[in-house]
User: Which sequence fits this backbone?
């Protein structure tokens, strides 16, 4: 029986996208996901076993990687080859799952989304200065979706410390004179950074990322708050007020949601754009 390798990292050609301080290495992949979590997870796990030849434990893990109730979407497999992804999609659909395919081109577009560095809440639209030097205006009526989340990145740096310590061997050699020697120690220092973001999607216009920690908020004038978090919250509140037609999703503000969507095979630090791309496809499905 064909058994897809659902839990192994895929390999192949890749691109590196940089968004501010975040660098994403994007491997060519096509994502197969279940659009919504089945109501009866035990029964659905049995169907997943039948369709894919998994163990019952693997199927349960796949349908609830975060350890709790999952609304969906849920990643089932990631493949470099579109043909293998298509085969898995057919197997899932034949077992009654509401499954979808997110192709590589959509993932590249999501990962390569431009970031804003400055904004202005204009009378008729959101005016943006982009990090690449360009500019863009998003008319409020054109904005149809706002996905808010929090990205996590881990930075590791090494610190070398040189100390002089007593050396018994050298003291004996010099007949009692106190002698020291240099000792070098290398330590790894790990820091974890989190940054809120909001992806703004509009009809007929490029999608843009608003990064909380790197936006300039001077355009708020009298409405300026004392902290970045407060200013970012005010910006999102104003966008929602001025764009009542836009759907709003903030499930990616917590780690559990990422884990539930991406599952055990895709790490949230490397693949946050997979989660946002899946939400984009799910929330804008006609």
Assistant:
């Amino acid at each position: 029986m064909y058994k897809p390798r659902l839990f192994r990292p895929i390999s192949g050609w890749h691109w590196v996208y940089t968004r501010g301080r975040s660098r994403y290495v994007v491997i060519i992949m096509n994502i197969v996901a279940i659009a919504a979590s089945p109501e009866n997870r035990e029964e659905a796990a049995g169907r997943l076993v039948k369709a894919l030849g998994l163990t019952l434990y693997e199927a349960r893990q796949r349908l609830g990687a975060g350890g709790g109730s999952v609304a969906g979407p849920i990643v089932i497999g990631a493949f470099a080859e579109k043909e293998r992804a298509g085969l898995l999609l057919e197997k899932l659909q034949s077992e009654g799952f509401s499954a979808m395919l997110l192709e590589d081109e959509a993932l590249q577009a999501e990962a390569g989304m431009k970031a804003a560095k400055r904004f202005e809440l204009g009378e008729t639209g959101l005016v943006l200065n982009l990090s690449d030097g360009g500019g863009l205006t998003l008319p409020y009526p054109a904005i149809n979706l706002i996905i808010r989340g929090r990205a996590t990145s881990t930075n590791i740096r090494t610190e070398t410390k040189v100390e002089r310590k007593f050396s018994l061997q050298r003291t004996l050699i010099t007949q009692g004179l106190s002698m020291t020697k240099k000792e070098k120690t290398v330590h790894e220092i790990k820091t974890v950074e989190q940054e809120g973001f909001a992806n703004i999607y509009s009809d007929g216009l490029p999608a843009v990322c608003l990064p909380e920690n790197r936006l300039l908020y001077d355009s708020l004038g009298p409405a300026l708050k004392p902290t970045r978090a407060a200013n970012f919250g005010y910006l999102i509140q104003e966008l929602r007020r001025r764009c009542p037609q836009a759907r709003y999703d903030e499930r990616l503000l917590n780690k559990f949601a990422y884990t539930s969507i991406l599952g055990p095979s895709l790490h949230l630090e490397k693949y946050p754009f997979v989660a946002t791309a899946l939400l984009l496809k799910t929330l804008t499905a006609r």
Q: What stands out?
A: The first helix runs from residue 41 to 52. Residues 158-190 form one domain.
